[in-house]
Recover the amino acids of this structure.
């Protein structure tokens, strides 16, 4: 097992094509958590759904490993597949929203008044951020999650989403601006505290 | 709105994360001014970004059950062999029993087998009868083929253990019949086939009868017996017996010739010679069709028979 840890993603993937279970296991260990977190963020904080989607993605890798182009970066390829899966899920949910009256409570968007009340009751910035992320456009959301929750570089995001780096940067910046407007009741205070702490240090 | 190109040259994110507005150099400040409307906005963006970074780093990981990895590893291992792959496809582990494709295929196959069997049993009855009929027909045809083979020759009924050659001599005596009989005898000699079972019995009976008659003639010295006896009656008797036994006496002309010869010899009052006269050269056939042809030949020779009787 030890030698597999030194292999690159693409080398491992080449072995997976030959049905090497240990190579697959190594890839799984490297990316399963990252993908589960991504799906969790992208799919309305639904842990079970995140697990299912992550499993589906790895199943695809097992069943159709030949779809992976060995010239590409495995991580970006995998996230592009994950992103497409999320897009499909959004479409499904959009159809359900249009046809169903009893929407899941967790997926409902709260109005500003409610969010203000929430902000008073719940000071947790992350919760507010999560709510605001749900309001974002799918493209902005995926870019933002990849950048700030998956720690992916601008270049990787550009490859994953098949965009230029400039487009990724501008998209990120405008998303940040949008979130700042929504989170100004929380983030500045929190940031001030943090900045104070940093300044004290 | 500010131009996007400026963002590409200097990364605003780096600036926001690393420096507050007051700490920016002139060049950075001029760049920041192209991106934000005011220093306050820069500060708000910076605070939000730092907060997001803090939150994301503190974000708890989603729990992943270990079974997911086990299932995936099992899946890839089952794919290593061809049959393993098929087995994994037909009987997946994470699916209820009734949803397993293997079980579904098996049940469909069973159903089809059942339907096909029932269908055959229902629809194939006429065919089965036809099959039986065809078998019967084959069985019927078999003796016909045998008979056709026999048709080319004639069964020679050995009576009184006479040699065929001797009979030939006896039969060949009348000149009129000689040619015909020679033809017939040639056939007899060329193809000697075992006689039918029923015919020897008839022949023996007739032979016995004639023997008895000859003995009576001998004892009584009544030569006129043969003058008054209707030989055709004997002929008919043979024919009728043959029809009822589904065997037909063929080559009637020859039989008639034999009988006629017998009568000629009787007229010559040669009782000893009469003893040797037999009903040999009676040939048999098994079909009515052949009987018809035999009847035809008898009819054809009717004049000859009449002539012989007149001559006697």
């Amino acid at each position: 097992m030890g030698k597999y840890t030194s292999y690159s993603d693409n080398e491992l993937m080449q072995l997976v094509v030959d049905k090497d279970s240990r190579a697959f296991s190594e890839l799984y260990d490297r990316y399963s958590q990252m993908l589960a977190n991504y799906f969790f963020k992208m799919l309305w904080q639904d842990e079970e759904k995140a697990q299912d989607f992550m499993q589906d993605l790895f199943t695809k890798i097992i069943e159709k490993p030949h779809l992976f182009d060995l010239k590409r970066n495995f991580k970006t390829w995998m996230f592009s597949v994950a992103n497409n899966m999320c897009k499909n899920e959004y479409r499904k949910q959009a159809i359900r929203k249009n046809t169903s009256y009893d929407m899941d409570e967790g997926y409902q968007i709260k109005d500003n008044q409610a969010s203000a009340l929430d902000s008073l009751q719940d000071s947790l910035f992350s919760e507010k951020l999560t709510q605001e992320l749900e309001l974002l456009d799918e493209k902005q959301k995926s870019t933002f999650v990849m950048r700030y929750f998956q720690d992916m570089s601008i270049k990787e995001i550009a490859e994953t989403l098949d965009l230029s780096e400039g487009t990724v940067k501008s998209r990120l910046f405008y998303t940040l601006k949008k979130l700042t407007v929504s989170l100004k009741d929380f983030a500045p205070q929190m940031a001030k505290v943090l900045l104070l702490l940093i300044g004290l240090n | 709105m500010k131009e996007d190109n400026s963002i590409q040259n200097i990364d605003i994110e780096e600036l926001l994360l690393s420096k507050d507005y007051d700490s920016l150099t002139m060049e950075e400040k001029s760049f920041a001014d192209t991106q934000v409307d005011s220093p306050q906005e820069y500060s708000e963006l910076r605070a939000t970004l730092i907060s997001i970074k803090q939150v994301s780093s503190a974000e708890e990981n989603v729990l992943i059950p270990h079974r997911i990895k086990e299932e995936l590893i099992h899946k890839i291992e089952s794919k290593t062999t061809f049959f393993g792959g098929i087995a994994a496809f037909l009987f997946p582990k994470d699916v209820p029993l009734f949803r397993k494709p293997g079980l579904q295929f098996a049940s469909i196959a069973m159903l089809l087998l059942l339907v096909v069997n029932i269908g055959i049993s229902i629809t194939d009855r006429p065919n089965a009868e036809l099959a039986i009929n065809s078998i019967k027909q084959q069985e019927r045809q078999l003796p016909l083929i045998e008979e056709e083979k026999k048709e080319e020759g004639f069964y020679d009924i050995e009576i009184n253990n006479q040699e065929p050659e001797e009979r030939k001599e006896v039969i060949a005596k009348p000149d009129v019949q000689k040619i015909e009989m020679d033809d017939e005898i040639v056939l007899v000699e060329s193809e000697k086939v075992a006689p039918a079972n029923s015919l020897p019995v008839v022949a023996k009976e007739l032979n016995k009868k004639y023997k008895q008659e000859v003995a009576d003639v001998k004892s009584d010295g009544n030569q006129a017996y043969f003058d008054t006896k209707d030989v055709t009656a004997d002929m008919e008797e043979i024919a009728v017996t043959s029809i009822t036994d589904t065997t037909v006496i063929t080559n009637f002309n020859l039989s008639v010739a034999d009988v006629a010869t017998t009568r000629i010899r009787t007229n010559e009052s040669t009782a000893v010679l009469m003893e040797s006269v037999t009903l040999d050269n009676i040939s048999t056939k098994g079909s009515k069709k052949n009987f018809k042809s035999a009847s035809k030949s008898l009819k054809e020779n009717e004049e000859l028979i009449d002539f012989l009787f007149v001559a006697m």
